[in-house]
Amino acid sequence: MTGETQGTATMLSAFDAGQAIWDALGPIGAVPVSLSVALGRVLAEDIVALEDVPSFDNAAMDGYAVRSEDVASVPAALAVLGEIPAGAAPGPALQPKSTARIMTGGAIPAGCDAVVQQEWTEIVAPGTVRILRSVAARHNVRNAGSDIVRGSTVLHFGTVLRPQEIGILASLGRSVLDVSRKPAAYVLATGNELSEGDAPLAPGMIRNSNGPMLSALLEAEGCTVRGLGVARDDRNGLTAKIREGLEADILVTSGGVSVGAYDLVGEVLRVLGVEIRFWKVNIRPGMPVLFGTKGRTAVFGLPGNPVSAMVTFLKFVRPAVRRLQGCRAAEEGVRLTAMLEHEIVKLDGKRHFVRGILREEKGVPLVRSTGPQLSNVLSSLSLANCLIVLPEEGRSFPAGARVEVELL
Predict the structure, then answer these.
(1) How far is CA 26 from the centre of its chain?
(2) Among 204, 211, 336, 342, which is most exposed with the fewest C-beta within 10 angstroms?
(3) pTM of the prediction?
C-alpha cells in the first residue's frame, strides 16, 4: 500500500483505503421480495430469460402486413383479408396478392414478411388497398427475441434495480426475486459538546448535526438505520454504546478519532475486539478516518467536523454499503472535467476534495469553489453541487486549469 507516515500511523492513499475496505467486506445475504418493492434494491441472483421478448414477430407500426414480393412493383393493389389488432391472434396465413390491416404490436401472420406503414398506402375500394412504395423483407417487423433472447442472462448479481430494470423483470414475468438484505446500520455521534433536540444551547455546546446527516446518507443507500444518540467522552458510556453498535452490519461513529486527550473511539474499539484496518487517509478534509471490522460488522470512525464526516462517508462508507449489498463495483458517481474559474492553492501533498459549484457557459463546464473550505462549515456543502478533486501531486491549480469534479 502507498501512503505517508505521520507519527506512528501510516496514512493510506484514498485509492488504497478504498481497496482495503472492498477487500475486507462481502455480501451479507439475500431475501426474496416482490417486484413492486424492488426499486433501488440490489439483485442477489442472475436473471436468466425463460422466454423470448417479444415472444412473437409483431408489427413496429400501424399499416398493412404484406408479402414483400407482392409489392416489389408499385403501385400494387392487394385484397384486405381482415384486421389484426394488438393482443389478437394473427389470423390466417397471407395468400399471394392479399394483405391484412395490422396495428402496432399486432402478431405477424404466417406468409407475411413485412409491414407497410399506413402513410404509404391508400384505400381504393372497399376491401382493397393500394401499396405506394415497395419494401424489403422484415421492414417494420419486430422479430421474436429482438429485445431479449430466451436463455440469455439479462441482469447480473449485484445490479442496482432502477425503473428500467424493473421494466425488464416485468417483461419476463418475474413477480418475486432475490435481492440483497438491507444492511442494518447504527449511527453514533460522540463528544461532550453535543446537544440533542431543540432546547436552547448551554454555553460551549453545539447541536448534533452529524447523527441526522449520517443517518440520512445511510438511508439513501438502502440501509435500515438506527440512531444511538450521543456518547460522551467517557470510556464506560462510550464502550456501552459501541458494544451495542457492533450488533449491526455497519457501525458509523463521528468524532473522537483524532489524537486529542478526549479522542477515545479508537481505544474503545480495540478493547472491544475490533481489528483496525487503517486509521488516517491522505486526504483533506477527513484525514483522521478509521476503518475496522469485528466479525461481520464493518466499523467506520469518521471525523467530528461535519464536512469531513460527509466527505469521508461519500468516499469510504458509501462504497462499503454497496459492497455489503453485493454490488459488483464501488461506483463513484458521475465524474467529469471542468475548467477552474479561479486559482486554488493547496499547501500539502494530500488529495483535496474542494466543495464546488459547477455550471456551464457556452458549452464549457466551469467550476469554482464555494469559498472558505473550513471543515466545520456545513453550509458550504449545501451550496455545492460537486467536489473538485485536486490530486496529491501539485500545489497550484491556476484559473483555466482542467480539474476533475465529482457530482454530489
Answers:
(1) 18
(2) 204
(3) 0.87
